[in-house]
Design goal:
4-stranded mixed sheet; 4 helices; 7 strands; about 20% helix
């Protein structure tokens, strides 16, 4: 995403007199992008457009755009679509791109995973990054991850969120 500037949550509230679930007119709830942190304008549009299909974790996460950006606190959920960030996170944990064999659909790649230190190698097929990122981008996936657990240990938690709610 090559958009300049970021929007912090709460920067602009949308209260156009929408009705709540009771039918009364009042202050509308926040737009989906307003609970996420460090989002670009493109990401804000993406979050608003796909809010119904994205997880609550994606909608609340701090968005990361470069390998120079990091968590604000231990255990924080981070989100990115940056190839550079994903590759660095995986490499730092001995991870390689992989797919789940048997989940392909014709020429379409199957379920994407990252094999951390070969722990899933019996059930995963390693692929190169280019073959991994083609479906990642085509499906508009979001990489959710942690840098550290709350106790300070390096985290290997990651999840792919798909706005169209197919298995990533």
């Amino acid at each position: 995403m090559a958009t300049k500037g970021t929007m912090e949550s709460g920067a602009k509230t949308h209260s156009a007199g929408k009705s709540d679930t009771t039918g009364k007119t009042g202050t509308a709830s926040k737009m989906p992008h307003e609970t996420a942190r460090n989002v670009t304008e493109d990401e804000a549009r993406f979050l608003d457009e796909y809010a119904d299909g994205l997880s609550k974790s994606t909608l609340r996460a701090k968005w990361i755009h470069s390998i120079d950006e990091h968590e604000d606190r231990l255990g924080q959920t981070l989100a990115t679509q940056s190839h550079e960030v994903i590759k660095k996170w995986a490499a730092d944990r001995g991870g390689v791109p992989a797919t789940v064999p048997g989940t392909e659909h014709g020429y379409r790649s199957g379920v994407l995973r990252i094999d951390i230190q070969g722990k899933g190698s019996k059930n995963l097929e390693q692929v190169d990054w280019n073959d991994w990122f083609k479906p990642f981008d085509a499906r508009n996936l979001v990489f959710l991850y942690q840098e550290h657990k709350r106790d300070g240990q390096t985290s290997t938690f990651f999840r792919l969120d798909n706005p169209k709610r197919e298995d990533a």
